[in-house]
Amino acid sequence: MLKTLLTLLTLSLTTALSAQVIDDDILDSLVSDVQQGKPVENVVIDKPAEPVQHRILVFGDEQLQGIGPWLYNHAWATGFPCFTSIWQESTIKRWAYSADLQYLIRKVKPTFIIVCLGTHDQGEADLSTREAAVKAIMRDIGDIPFAWIGPLAVKSKKDDRTIADLIQQLVGADRFYDSYNLRLAREDELHPTKEGCQRWVEGFVAWLDGGEAAHPIHFVTPTTTVPFKNCETHKPSYQGKRR
Fold first, then answer.
1. Could you write out the DSSP letters of every residue in 109-121?
2. For labelling alongside 81, which of 22, 53, 58, 191 has CA 20 to 30 A away?
3. Strand, helix or coil at 62?
4. Whole-angstrom Cα distance, residue 118 to residue 196?
């Protein structure tokens, strides 16, 4: 029993004590005092870390129709409930000035949020209103840890990464996965192929666990795939919930 207890304790002894041979009586006494809640000098209790059970909320534009299944399967393999909301062709402004994100946070009660927006903001000139929109989304998210998957480059937008840079500046590089220069096979100029979406998500989850993210998460790589259970999909004509 003593050996079992000692696996949960790290003993930082004084110089005088550490110079001595520590016999079983001393160790028995230290363990007994810690169990009884008595103050013991130079003893640190190192308890095993409890695994975090996340509830993941993912929201954004129709890129989630491609990468959502891969995100969902990584979460499923890890044991994390994952809830997705897809608003086709949505912009940062649409999410910022509707009440949909607030509604989803109340409903899902997420411990981690993934944002996938910016594709349909590229090439737009009203940067000040889009800056305000990013800040509004951040206010809605509040203290909940999050990561923002940045947009891929769109050639018809003249390869202008202004929006990507703006988002990164506002949310911080450690909360922004920069996708702009990814070279993925495309179905069209906006949307990657199935294999491209898989590569996109694999890069994102590796970044989340690679020491650069503000709130690192380790996702298990799925060995099999399960059907994607999306929570809701809104058409481009959807106007959003009113604040």
1. --SEEEEE--GGG
2. 191
3. coil
4. 18
* Rg of the chain on CA atoms, in Å: 24
Mean pLDDT throughout 168-190? 96
**CA 240 to chain CA centroid, nearest Å:** 24
Say if residue 223 is exposed, middle or buried (CB neighbours under 10 Å; 0-12, 13-18, 19+): exposed
Classify residue 70 as left (phi > 0), alpha (psi -120 to 50) or beta: alpha
Which contacts of 134-139 are long-range, i.e. CB under 8 A and separated by 24 or more positions? Answer: 134/92, 134/96, 134/166, 134/167, 134/170, 134/171, 135/170, 136/96, 136/97, 137/92, 137/95, 137/96, 137/101, 138/170, 138/171
Helix (H, G, I), strand (E, B), or coil: what is residue 170?
helix
Task: Please tell me whether the overall predicted TM-score, pTM, comes out greater than 0.70 for this model.
Answer: yes
Q: CB neighbours (10 Å) of residue 203?
A: 16
Q: Where are the beta strands (DSSP E) in the chain?
A: 9-11, 43-45, 56-60, 82-87, 112-116, 146-149, 176-177, 232-234
Which tokens hold the place of 178? Answer: 């920069």
The span from the CA of 18 to the CA of 14, in Å, is 6
> Which residues, including other chains, have CB under 8 Å from residue 9's CB and lie 6 or more apart?
30, 31, 34, 43, 44, 45, 46
Direct distance between the N- and C-terminal alpha carbons of the chain, in angstroms, rounded to an integer? 60
Separation CA 228–CA 21 (nearest Å): 60
Q: Report d(CA 191, CA 45) in Å as an integer.
A: 51
**Are 61 and 119 contacting, i.e. CB atoms less than 8 angstroms apart?**
yes
Residue 48, C-beta contacts closer than 8 angstroms, at least 6 positions apart: 8
